[in-house]
Amino acid sequence: MSRKIIFFDIDGTLFCPELGRITDEVKNAIKSVQKQGHLCFVASGRPYGFIAENVKEIGFDGYVLANGANVKYHNKDLTARYLNPEKVKELTECLKSKNIEYILQTPTLCYLNQSNQCLLDFYSHCNIDFHNLCYQYDEEDIIKRTVKMEAWTKNQEELDYAISCFQSFSYELHPDHHSLEIYSNEVSKATGILDVLHELNIDIKDSYCFGDGPNDVEMFETVGHPIAMGNAIEDIKKRAEIICPSVQENGVAIQLEKMFNE
Question: Which residues does 210 contact at the CB level (< 8 Å), separation at least 6?
Answer without folding.
Answer: 6, 7, 8, 9, 13, 14, 227, 228, 229, 244, 251, 252, 255
